[in-house]
Design brief:
- With about 300 residues, this protein is α+β, with helices and mostly antiparallel strands.
- About 65% of the residues lie in helices and about 10% in strands.
- It folds into 2 domains: about 15-40 and about 130-300, Up-down Bundle (Multidrug efflux transporter AcrB transmembrane fold), CATH 1.20.1640; about 50-125, Alpha-Beta Plaits (2-Layer Sandwich), CATH 3.30.70.3400.
- It has helices spanning about 15-35, 45, 60-70, 100-110, 125-155, 160-180, 190-220, 225-255, 260-300; strands at about 50-55, 80, 85-90, 115-125.
- It has a 4-stranded antiparallel β-sheet.
- It is elongated, with a radius of gyration of 24 Å.
Length: about 300
């Protein structure tokens, strides 16, 4: 393998407390944002309702669109700029899939600049379907994590499974928190990105754990902290090259993929960066802390 990083000897675990404070601060900020927003900002996929992507041929603004919708009783609709300067995404919550409602909204939009607009996308999802999808999303993530704990416990030891689980939870919480802080919606495509984050972070973590296990056998007389640090340095080149290669593709999607794919690409970008970070500064320190705690119990 091409060596981008050669002969490094970084004391990663010596910086674990600083890394822990940084992670804790970011996670706390995200959780506070989620609480203040009343929970994650779900897209129409999970909330239900009618979502309309509309492009006006004449210059307009969010206030004009909201005023038109307020006149027909939809003043609480979520409206945001989307893509072009005069293009908007409108999300109206509704309890039924009503063609009459859609026609009413069309007429309201037609009152802005004399009807000079184009509907580029229109989706309607019932609240029951949205609720079921939300439950399936949570179940999918929890089942994936439970399977990971079982797999790593069998392949390695239980303490490695705990380290991986804490790292994965860390990655998901940070990504979810950033979506809340940036007021971005959680959609089905973002859910797919979350599952990718779980898989990518796990793969990176297992590479480190494999090297830790090998070095622990060969260097039995060295301290476990030294063994983990050595393993992190030995796998650093592979970790950085893999992450940079994948990140290059994801960044292209983020900046040139368009507004529709942007949330998905953003989640992947955050996941790649945070997943690489957590395999070094979260999973490994948790394994070390677990090992030290077990040794204290035996000696007491």
């Amino acid at each position: 393998m091409f060596e981008l990083i050669k002969n490094v000897n970084i004391d990663f675990l010596g910086k674990r407390k600083l890394a822990g404070m940084i992670s804790g601060a970011v996670i706390l900020a995200g959780l506070v944002s989620i609480v203040l927003h009343g929970g994650p900002l779900y897209s129409i996929d999970f909330e239900g309702g009618t979502e309309i992507q509309v492009l006006f041929t004449e210059s307009t603004n969010v206030e004009s669109v909201r005023e038109a919708l307020s006149e027909i009783g939809y003043g609480d609709a979520a409206i945001r700029s989307f893509g072009n300067e005069d293009e908007f995404l409108i999300h109206v919550k509704t309890s039924t899939k009503s063609e009459e409602q859609v026609n009413t909204i069309r007429e309201a939009l037609a009152s802005i600049h004399g009807g000079s607009y184009e509907i580029r996308r229109l989706e309607t999802v019932g609240p029951k379907i949205g609720k079921e999808l939300k439950g399936d999303m949570i179940s999918a993530v929890l089942i994936a994590m439970a399977g990971i704990v079982i797999y790593i416990s069998i392949r390695f030891q239980f303490m490695y499974a705990i380290g991986a689980l804490v790292a994965l939870t860390h990655d998901v919480l940070i990504t979810l928190g950033l979506f809340s802080l940036l007021n971005m919606e959680i959609s089905l495509s973002v859910l797919a990105a979350f599952l990718f984050i779980v898989g990518y972070s796990l793969n990176d973590t297992i590479v480190v754990f494999d090297r830790v296990r090998e070095n622990a056998k060969e260097k039995r007389h060295d301290g476990f902290m030294s063994v983990i640090n050595l393993s992190l340095n030995q796998t650093l080149n592979r970790t950085v090259i893999t992450s940079l290669t994948t990140l290059t593709v994801v960044l292209i999607l983020l900046f040139f993929g368009g507004e529709v794919i942007k949330p998905f690409a953003f989640a992947l970008t955050v996941g790649l960066v945070v997943g690489t970070y957590s395999s070094i500064f979260v999973a490994a320190p948790v394994v070390l802390a677990w090992d030290e705690n077990q040794k204290k119990k035996k000696n007491s």
